[in-house]
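Appendix B, record 7
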Amino acid sequence: MKTDQRLIDIDDENRHDDRPVEVPVFSIESSGTTADKTASESIGQHIKKLPYIISIVSALALSLCVAWILANRHWGQLIDTESSVSDKENIVRLRQDYRAVAKGTEMTSDSVFGVAFDMYSIEGLKASLEREFPDTTDGSLVLFMRSSDYHPDKSWIGDVVIDGVRHKDKEKNRAAYVAISQSGYPVIGISINDDVIGHVEKYGGHFFRQFVLLGNGELPSKFSLHGKVERAAIGRKEDGKLYYIMTRHRETMYDFADALREYGFMDAVYITGGNSYSFYRDKQGAAHVTDKVREKYSEYKDSTPPAPLLVFRNK
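Structure tokens (predicted):
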């Protein structure tokens, strides 16, 4: 049987007639049941709803993010720096038995980048937060300084714990902290959670928050205080030892923090008030205080400090 070439060659350039090319159409009949069709229709409906489900989940996630940001909008240094010691490590230290073993402190003077400061070791001293102005004639008193700041109405800024009693504050812009066990062991750290404050609250310790100066040897991206005043800090070196540092002159927070980093400190918590309380007791038991500070003490001794004082004693 001879095959007609015109039915085979469908190339546009080689066609021999004007008849349209027939394109075969295949149809597949379903042998499924009504239940199969119903299930297929149900799946189709769910697929149609999928964009709406995704939109709802996305809106919910966005709402949670906004709520978290609003709840933490006051944290000025939000995980901007991290301490070289974690909260868990600090809690382990706060659980240890502790007693004062030092009779006093040693004062060292130095300068870095033109920032002059005096540095006092607080190793082996017992720390506490106290509401009253300490007696400078008391032989157990070694050092004392300001701790938290306060609002114009004299309420304290940031959460504070004294002897296990927590004083809450809505202000949340200070991520650094000083925590003290019931037995007087001090630690410093940086975090925005309540793990450490919850521990000292439960076990009768002390706690207050302040600004970050250094975290794991790094400066925060911004500082909340500006201008030049006398500065102070509680700092930790790489060996874990804590020191109280006061500048001799007015400095910016950045210059002070940068000098501490260059000097070898890993973490540093800002202490407000600068050299307001220039008092210390050396390891021979002798008290060191200037006449100018004595005059200042006479103004303070009969009044209650607006915020608790961080006090270090030898027993």
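Remarks on this record: The radius of gyration is 35 Å. The chain has five helices and 16 strands.
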